[in-house]
Amino acid sequence: MDLEHGKKPSAHPAPCTVQQVKDKLIGLRPVMLRASALLATTVAAAVMGLNRQSYTAVVAIVGTKPLTQTFTAQFKDTPAFVYFVIANAIASLYNLVVLAMRRLVQGRVQRLVLHMGDMVIMLLLATGAATAASMAELGKNGNLHAHWNPMCDKFGSFCNRGGLSLVSSFIGVTLMLALNLLSAAANTPRGIVAGQ
């Protein structure tokens, strides 16, 4: 109409309805959850993978000269921490690939395959975080019955960085669980979700 009267059309687009905004936000939620899970698992793998600390102790005194030995704690010393780093790295790579290829996932079969992959990755992350947490607890408190002494009193920063890595990994597990719940709700027929 404006063009007929010689006026330029207005530059303001038509306002969005509430439903359109809601649909856009719901569409972004899985992307934001997946990006957050990618960040959490990448941080967990990187922090634990680079975690290393040395400690020098006097082991004997010969004459007046002390003999020292350097002890080094690193994630490669414990198979549980190695599994933790590998599990978080796999989860990071998986989430990166899914984010890069999310436009290709359109059909119901592709969404179901993605849902199954999310479940496998969540379980991989959960087992990796649980095994590393059990070893972290052993390193912090030791085991008096087996005569294993705690080591966090000597390798404090190693234990602190490992704890931060564990927290980040458990956040990744929680985000993957949220993704699984959203995916299950999206793949369920509406009548079942509504309780009919």
From TrEMBL:
Q: Which UniProt keywords apply?
A: Cell membrane, Cell wall biogenesis/degradation, Membrane, Transmembrane, Transmembrane helix
State where the protein is found. Answer: Cell membrane
The membrane spanning regions, by residue number, are 31-50, 80-100, 112-136, 163-182
Give the GO terms filed under biological process for this record: cell wall organization
The UniProt record lists the Casparian strip membrane protein domain at: 31-174
> Which cellular component terms (GO) are annotated to the entry?
plasma membrane
Keyword ATP-binding in the entry? The reply is: no
InterPro entries in alphabetical order: CASP/CASPL, CASP_dom, CASPL
Which Pfam family, any one of them, does this sequence belong to? CASP_dom
Look up and give the membrane topology term: Multi-pass membrane protein
Q: Does the keyword Cell membrane apply?
A: yes
Q: What is the purpose of this protein?
A: Regulates membrane-cell wall junctions and localized cell wall deposition. Required for establishment of the Casparian strip membrane domain (CSD) and the subsequent formation of Casparian strips, a cell wall modification of the root endodermis that determines an apoplastic barrier between the intraorganismal apoplasm and the extraorganismal apoplasm and prevents lateral diffusion.
Q: What interactions and quaternary structure are annotated?
A: Homodimer and heterodimers.
What family name appears in the similarity comment? Belongs to the Casparian strip membrane proteins (CASP) family.
Protein name, as recorded: CASP-like protein
Q: What is the lineage of its organism?
A: Eukaryota, Viridiplantae, Streptophyta, Embryophyta, Tracheophyta
Q: Gene for this protein?
A: LOC100846464
